[in-house]
């Protein structure tokens, strides 16, 4: 069976940090300056968490996730309500009949609360595609 990916809503959240997962970074200092101490993410380094959705050639977001917010099922569901479903309301009836929703299998995505929330929105069964957190390359 072929799947028309132009009707799939791909969603995910991500954290971007100034020092990547390998700690690699670059910078410079003049002769009279001391080398600045750079914090790694594990030591409270700087970064931002954001969420976005891609549908066909359209980007929904990205939306900033407030600093210090831990994404649990209730927060994830509210985030979808505030961001994705505001966009979804404006879509055609044809799209709403055909679309499929894809998100990762992070604990907040697969939790009963989220599943129930999506069910109430009419997103259930074949409308949901679970995307693995890590794929082999």
Topology (SSEs and partners):
Elements lengths: L7 E10 L29 E9 L2 E8 L7 H16 L4 H6 L1 E5 L2 H4 L1 H9 L7 E4 L6
Parallel strand pairs: 1-4, 4-5
Antiparallel strand pairs: 1-2, 2-3
Helix pairs in contact: 1-4
Key structural traits:
137 residues, alpha/beta, 5-stranded mixed sheet, 5 strands
Describe the 3D structure.
The chain has four helices and five strands; from the N terminus they run E-E-E-H-H-E-H-H-E. By secondary structure, the chain is an alpha/beta fold. Strands 3-2-1-4-5 form a five-stranded mixed beta sheet, covered by helices on one side. The longest helix is centred in the middle third of the chain and has 16 residues, at 73-88. The two termini are 23 Å apart. It comes from Meganyctiphanes norvegica (Northern krill).
- The Cα radius of gyration reads 19 Å
What's the total number of strands? 5
Order of helix and strand elements from N to C terminus = EEEHHEHHE
- Derived from helix and strand composition plus strand pairing, the structural class reads alpha/beta
What is the CA–CA distance across the termini?
23 Å
Q: Could you state the oligomeric state of the chains shown?
A: single chain
Q: What number is the mean pLDDT?
A: 77
* Most strands sheet: 5 strands, mixed
Question: Per DSSP, what share of the residues sits in E-state strands of 2 or more residues?
Answer: 25-35%
Count of alpha/pi helices: 4
Shape, please? Answer: elongated
Share of residues in helices: 25-40%
With strands numbered from the N-terminus, the spatial order across the biggest sheet is 3-2-1-4-5
Uncertain segments: none
Protein name: Transposase
GO molecular function: nucleic acid binding
Organism: Meganyctiphanes norvegica (Northern krill)
């Amino acid at each position: 069976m072929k799947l028309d990916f132009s009707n799939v809503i791909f969603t995910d959240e991500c954290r971007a940090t100034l020092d990547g997962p390998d700690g690699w970074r670059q910078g410079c200092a003049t002769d009279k300056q001391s080398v600045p101490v750079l914090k790694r993410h594990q030591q409270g380094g700087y970064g931002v968490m954001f969420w976005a959705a891609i549908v066909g050639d359209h980007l929904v977001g990205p939306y900033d996730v407030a600093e210090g917010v831990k994404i649990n099922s209730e927060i994830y569901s509210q985030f979808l309500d505030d961001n994705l479903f505001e966009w979804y309301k404006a879509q055609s009836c044809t799209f709403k009949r055909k679309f499929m929703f894809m998100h990762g299998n992070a604990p907040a995505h697969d939790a009963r609360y989220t599943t129930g929330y999506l069910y109430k929105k009419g997103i259930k069964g074949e409308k949901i595609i679970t995307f693995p957190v890590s794929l082999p390359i």
